[in-house]
Design a protein that fits this description.
heterodimer; A: 116 residues; mainly beta; 7-stranded mixed beta sheet; 4-stranded antiparallel beta sheet; 0% helix; B: 115 residues
Chain lengths: 116, 115
């Protein structure tokens, strides 16, 4: 299985709602990532988990809360979002190799989030 | 520091003609380089990767790229464009010294293919 899956595909939420995005991979990858992508822009890194521990937080507002319950799952909990948070949220995974020659990432299809 | 410059924000070609998408990179280390493609409202799909083996890299769907260290370039080519190639293409550099998979994306090149 060489696929990263994300649910839901689309999400519309109000600014007072709480929702979660889910990501799953069964490739045995130990690094997982959340990206935010606005229209016509490249993805922007939000968080990196390595061996289920948060390794990188790119100064993301606390209304985004990541969680890695196990090596296959990655969640992004959303609370009190703003309309400018509307974007495509992409999950990715990769093998983490110490002294690795490359860090090829496999991306999921994304969740299209609209905040009203 | 790592960075990527995609020289064209938009490229238009006719179906059956060659495709050239240009990319220059800057890296403090020997880089790993990738091209990803993104179709509308989809995730990113890896087209090909360079990891210090052969400098001419072949990818999926007939694409290939050549790593030229002297020119710090990694241009993407395809001999004959197909309508299905219309998409956004990202040139990406990875820090080979990083174990945490940080990628540096170019701004993207939108490829339009005319019938």
């Amino acid at each position: 299985d060489t696929e990263v899956t994300q649910t839901p595909k689309h999400l519309v939420m109000g600014m007072t709602n709480k929702k979660s995005l889910k990501c799953e991979q069964h490739m045995g990858h130990r690094a997982m990532y959340w990206y935010k992508q606005k229209a016509k822009k490249p993805p922007e890194l939000m968080f990196v988990y390595s061996y289920e521990k948060l390794s990188i937080n790119e100064s993301v507002p606390s209304r985004f809360s990541p969680e890695c319950p196990n090596s296959s799952l990655l969640n992004l909990h959303l609370h009190a979002l703003q309309p400018e948070d509307s974007a495509l949220y992409l999950c990715a995974s990769s093998q983490e190799r110490r002294g690795s020659s490359y860090n090829e990432q496999f991306f999921g299809p994304g969740t299209r989030l609209t905040v009203l | 520091a790592q960075s990527v410059t995609q020289l064209d924000s938009h490229v238009s070609v006719s179906e059956g003609t060659p495709v050239l998408l240009r990319c220059n990179y800057s890296s403090s280390y020997s880089p790993s380089l990738f091209w990803y493609v993104q179709h509308p409202n989809k995730g990113l799909q890896l087209l090909l990767k360079y990891t210090s083996a052969a400098t001419l890299v072949k990818g999926i769907n007939g694409f290939e790229a050549e790593f030229k260290k002297s020119e710090t370039s990694f241009h993407l080519t395809k001999p004959s464009a197909h309508m299905s190639d219309a998409a956004e293409y990202f040139c990406v550099v990875a820090d080979r010294g990083s174990t945490l998979g940080r990628l540096y994306f170019g701004r993207g090149t939108q490829l339009t293919v005319w019938p």
